[in-house]
Amino acid sequence: GYLQPQWVKPFEKQSGCTIHPKYAGSSDEMVTDMRSGGGDQYDMVSASGDASLRLIYGKDVQVVDPSKVPDFKNFGKAFQSPPNNTVGGKHYGISLQWGPNTLLYNTKLVKPAPTSWSVIYSPKYKGKVTVPDNPIQIADAALYLMKHKPSLGIKDPYELNSAQFTATINLLKQQKPLIKKYWELASDEIDLFKNGDAVVGAAWPYQTNTLINQAHAPVKDLIPTEGATGWLDTWMVSSHTKNLTCAYQWLAYVSTPKVQAEQAIFFGETPVNSKACAIMDTLSKGSCAQYHANAPLKYFKQIYFWKTPIAACGNGQNNCMDYTQWQQAWTQLKG
Predict the structure, then answer these.
(1) Residues 27, 47: contact at Cβ < 8 Å?
(2) Alpha-carbon span 249 to 11, nearest angstrom
(3) From its phi and psi, is residue 16 left (phi > 0), alpha (psi between -120 and 50) or beta?
(4) Euclidean distance between CA atoms 103 and 220, whole angstroms
(5) Beta strands in 150-288 (DSSP E)
(6) Which of 78, 151, 236, 242 is most buried, by the most CB atoms less than 10 A from its CB?
(7) How far apart are CA 22 and CA 145, in angstroms?
């Protein structure tokens, strides 16, 4: 969705390059497209953190040189070399936009105001809870257990051995009867909160701001005491592209403050370029703060950004559950 005409046409005019967009419905679809048509049909992809490591380890995308992207120096430190797109000190893409998975709640119906993710595992709100329909949601449950069951030894919510993974899935099984709906689209969750069918759940700032500004709904969101997961999208270049010059021109263009700010407002996301903040506020008053674009470093330290689960654990062992196992477990859980 990052190839809207208002950005593509000026780029084509100034660069002489032509863009042919293809919109993917999911991270899985993006990975499949890049593997089957990378270099022939597709030169680049805007991959989220649940796809980027799959593309890197599958050798579907190439190392890029950040020095060729003038605005890279203006990226927040947390977004210059994040683990979802930088491996072994090599950059396999340029960060784009991000957002935290926040705890969203109805201020009139959820009392006292929550401070912990425990509220989405509480029978008190049975049938009124909603969470994303995505295997990466397993990491949210793992993050909760990491803080509340230290005996499990979870150090990273994306690196789970068999025992840690089983404990996490068991928590999600306990949560399942409480769920009103596993939402696929942000608009689904917005409707659930608007209609009163859901009163608490995992969301993005986009849902909160839409519910407050357009529906005038009594909602708030927060990063709970345990912290939160978050997504961070990356522009990546196919290993087989024949259009590398144009690819670098696009990376440079899409990283500029103006384009970053416009995308942030359009998609309800947060730019990685720190200079986009002031432009956001001229486009939509107060949006910089709403989307945490000017947040201090300590804010980012509580966000555990998505990365594809792989067998190689951070402890040097290969006994972690990989993304395929996460997918299978999620499908079984919902079924």
Answers:
(1) yes
(2) 9
(3) left
(4) 8
(5) 179-183, 200-203, 219-222, 228-237, 270-271
(6) 236
(7) 38
User: What is the token pair recorded at 193?
Assistant: 């909160």
240: left (phi > 0), else alpha (psi -120 to 50), else beta? Answer: alpha
Encode burial over 296-331: b for 16+ CB neighbours within 10 A, e otherwise. eeeebeebbbbbbbbeebeeeeeebbebebbbebbe
For residue range 179-218, list pLDDT tens digits in order: 999 999 999 999 999 999 999 999 998 899 899 989 999 9
* Cα–Cα distance measured from residue 106 to residue 73, given in angstroms and rounded to the nearest whole number: 40
Read off the pTM.
0.87
CA dist 265 and 280 (Å) reads: 7
Q: Which amino acid is at 301?
A: K
Strands 44-47 and 303-305: unpaired
Gap between the Cα atoms of 106 and 117, Å rounded: 15
Angle between the N-to-C axes of helices 323-334 and 137-148, in degrees from 0 to 180, rounded to the nearest 10:
90
The span from the CA of 289 to the CA of 207, in Å, is: 16
Q: Residues 145-154: pLDDT tens digits?
A: 999 999 999 9
For 321, residues 6+ apart whose C-beta sits below 8 A from its C-beta are 160, 161, 162, 165, 309, 311, 329
Which two three-digit tokens encode residue 118? 């425990």
Max CA pair span of the chain = 59
* 311 contacts 319 by C-beta, under 8 angstroms: yes
CA 192 – CA 195 distance, rounded (Å): 5
Nearest in space to 158 (alpha carbons), one of 147, 142, 146: 142
Q: Can you tell me the distance from the alpha carbon of 251 to that of 259, in angstroms, rounded to the nearest whole number?
A: 11
